[in-house]
Write a structure and sequence with these properties.
DNA-binding, mainly alpha, homodimer, 11 helices, 76% helix
Chain lengths: 187, 187
Amino acid sequence: MPAIKSSRAEAVEAIMREFRNSGYDAASLARLSAATGLGKSSLYHYFPNGKEDMAKAAAARAVELVVEAVFEPLTGAGNLKARLQKTAAGLSKFYNGGKASCLVDLFTIGEAEAATPGLAKAMAEALLRAFAGAAEEAGHPKKQAKDIAERAVIEIEGALVLSRALRSTRPFQHMLARLPALLLTGA
Amino acid sequence: MPAIKSSRAEAVEAIMREFRNSGYDAASLARLSAATGLGKSSLYHYFPNGKEDMAKAAAARAVELVVEAVFEPLTGAGNLKARLQKTAAGLSKFYNGGKASCLVDLFTIGEAEAATPGLAKAMAEALLRAFAGAAEEAGHPKKQAKDIAERAVIEIEGALVLSRALRSTRPFQHMLARLPALLLTGA
DNA sequence: GTCTATAGTATGATAGAC
DNA sequence: GTCTATCATACTATAGAC
């Protein structure tokens, strides 16, 4: 079937960007309207439940993009270490080198949890699953792979927080450099 | 001099709690008023610039409390490993076992940065200095101590994010268990 | 120092014309 | 689908009485 030019998909992309820049509470309808170029009525046409629906769509899209960045490089060609470096590169792209934030963090703050219960938990679990898969691919037994995945997610989230606070991408880049070793050797 | 019963200090404590529970944007004056038991006018009496001043006071108090939890156990008696475990225990107390958030994270989201520029950066740097001191105390050369401190802060912030998202203190507790080893051996 | 009252603005959300 | 206009509510902040 022919590709339908979907302005909704474009809107979701812009909405995700806005949420990742502002967080849930500060991403007002006015800002989301400006970010998408759509009036409020159009936003409510695509997202009948307002911000709540927009947050869900943004979360779903973010998970899609992360899976593309984390999973697909792992199932490709090349040796394991090279593929893990591609994973790191994919993360760098998704998090804009450390300048963009993670919705797992932003959607656990303020009114977000009440508005979209369990959404951040689902995203975190998707991330953990992806990294546990990567660790298993690297040869670690299931239980150890889970621990490694937890540490990987912790390092990513923490590095993003610290980079944001220091207004420097250095902590994030530094963390990405040790990520392949963490997944390979668990250290 | 005799201790002056300061309702301002009590208010700061309650305000800090509210910011750490809600984040900057969702901590409305109504909530801060309810949390402190003070009317809006009283809040403006103590904090003439409103939320901005309250955020600064909350940040200053949080740094005080963390320094108490991180620094003081290190300069006390006992061998190094035991003192580092006290540090971990102090962190657990300050972050309520992983249930409370860190203002370094919350104050880099939404309107907070615009309202209190550099505040989160100053807090992050205070944390980094404290942990670099701990790592030097453990015998690491200055440059390596800085790297270890960066990893410690990353793990703390990341573990808090993940624990919040999963609604489980397990990642935070797990992280605290490996903190002393990280500061001692750098691994 | 704390209260009530309120200003002025922004918010999320909806109605109805086109 | 998109627009303008608008609702009711919440927000930060201030004024003035006590």
